Amino acid sequence: MSDEKPHDHQLEHAISNHDIKNPDVLEIEAKEALATEHALTTAQAVRAYPMAIFWCLMVSMCVIMEGYDTILIGNFYAYPAFAKKYGQYIDESGQHQLSAAWQAGLGNSSGVGCFFGVLINGFLVNKFGQKRVLLASLVVLSCFLFIVFFAPNIGVLAAGELLCGLPWGVFASSAPAYASEVLPMSLRIYLTSYTNMCFIIGQLIAAGTLAGLVHRTDEWGYRIPFAIQWVWPAILIPVLSFSPESPWHLVRKGRFEEAEHSLRRLVRKSAGIDVTATLATIVHTNNLEVELSAGTSYMDCFRGVERRRTIIAMVAFAGQVLSGSSFAYNSTYFFQQVGLTTDQTYNLNVGGTGMALVGTLINWFFLMPYVGRRRIYLWGMFTMSLILFIIGILNVKTHDSTIGMTQAVLTLAWTFVFQLSAGQLGWALPAEMGSTRLRQKTVCLARNAYYIISVIAGVLQPYFMNPAQWNLKGYTGFIWGGTAFATFVWCFFFLPETKGRTFEELDWLFAKRTPTRKFRTTEVDVFDHEQRNTLAVATPHTV
Hints:
This protein has helices spanning 8-16, 23-39, 42-48, 50-60, 64-76, 80-86, 100-128, 130-149, 154-182, 185-213, 220-227, 231-240, 247-252, 256-266, 275-292, 305-322, 325-328, 331-337, 342-367, 373-394, 403-420, 422-433, 439-465, 476-494, 503-511, 529-538; strands at 89-90, 96-97. By secondary structure, the protein is mainly alpha-helical. The chain has one domain (21-269, 305-538): Growth Hormone, Chain: A. The chain is globular. The two termini are 34 Å apart. The chain crosses the membrane at residues 52-80, 100-121, 133-151, 191-214, 311-329, 349-367, 376-396, 408-429, 449-465, 477-495. Keywords: Membrane, Transmembrane, Transmembrane helix, Transport.
């Protein structure tokens, strides 16, 4: 192989003619692109990839609707107008209440829909690509929103929530995967975790809407919040019609010229980024994964070294629920049960969501640029378990009038820590863990692990809190504190560091079965052919 760098048109010609069996040309260009990506600072990447950032922001905005609904339904239980319309009984204080069974059923309806939406999305994106699937999902959601808006009873409302969950599942699994595929390494963590920011934005909009309408006694008190969800499809459908498709998806389909065109739309022309070299890296990485991976099906996610990657992604996402989010993020009902007034309850809810936003920004600017993903996630989980245990301990003194407010403030502190750690990294880590050929399905499986744990938690949480059931109040902190601590222990032994690693380097580290604690320090040479051949033999397709 000559040391002289071939002209760009050689690679362009090779790729345009679907000749991906030219390892010499591809390797030289891929080496150049890999060196460039490692040298690219965050500030340089922002200047070089403004359109990639814009399209990631637009795709992630789809998640606002799921975040909005999560807060909406969970906090409608203590909402007077909603409880009067859909409640089953009146408690001893004269307040309308939904039974624990209907709280669990309604609260989990969208989660069940999301589960199937995510599962289907893994097949749809592989066949049609991110863009067409997202646009179709937005159209479908616009139709399903009519069901929840006009629901005459709680059964129809639950059915509407389930159907709306189908497209929400698509958005939740597509947004981080899309961001990870159109951005350079230095921006990847910010825009994959930005999906979480959109979740918070949706929650903040919902919290503000509920706080503003809580005193309405007519049906518009709960119908207006449902109607607001039509705003996002109206904005996003025309915008996303012009979005570029993921170049990784196009390469996997052998559409190399379209992939190059997509890359040129994502980078600023004057930035000096060699798009041909970037395309060579994608092709080179895809070729490596063809050698090391069994394929692109869901079953392949659990074969060979992919099993480890998939399990890490699944636990990282499920950790968002195991950390106690079902308790802390449906806190208005908890506030009501510990004796706070309706105004205090909904004002605290807005404040908590605001703190979540602040926590996200602090993480972006002061933690993620300097601290590894593993350390942030690990110690965030430990801190959240500690806060939840304190909430449980405080519940011993139920006769103290200040205890309820103290517990409420601690839930806000939990929210802040959550967004410093698992809240954002729960979205980002699954998008980094899976191999590129299995990334969409890995994210889908991880998100579905989240939904499964979320549904279980959603069934149990109303029974923990409902005064006609177990009535645990603050003692619920002991339960979720225990699951958060168990997740902390798991992370200590199994969650590797991915900061500063390209997708090809991560393929290499996992293929070599690198121990968890050595991911950060192990030197990687993805162009070592002797090692590459050894790995290909060590990871057969039928493991």
